[in-house]
Amino acid sequence: MKNHLIITTALVVGLTFLDSTLCHAQSPSPKQKQFERLDTDKNGEISLEEYKAKTKTPDTAEEKFAKIDTDKNGSLSLEEWTAIGKKRPQAAE
Ligand SMILES: [Ca+2]
Ligand SMILES: [Ca+2]
Prior knowledge:
The chain has 93 residues and is mainly alpha-helical. The chain has helices at 2-26, 30-38, 48-54, 61-68, 78-87; strands at residues 45-47, 75-77. Strands 1-2 form a two-stranded antiparallel ribbon. The protein is rod-shaped, with a radius of gyration of 20 Å. The protein starts with a helix and ends in a 6-residue tail after the last helix. Bound molecules: calcium ion (2 copies).
């Protein structure tokens, strides 16, 4: 019975440690948070419709979207989205 308690405690401590490690590693960047906000149906990609719905400049949305969509598959992956900031750093929010 005592052994069981030790194992359980070790497991809980282990999981807590693992959880905090994962949280630390994941700490989402502002770009990633922005991506998640834009991806309203949470399918992991931003469609042109999703982009247009949230952009402040709908007039140039399609043009901008096309520039960001580097593989031209009609949707923006997180990779494509975060690449924007790498080319042209934006001011901190
Ligand atoms: Ca989406
Ligand atoms: Ca794409």
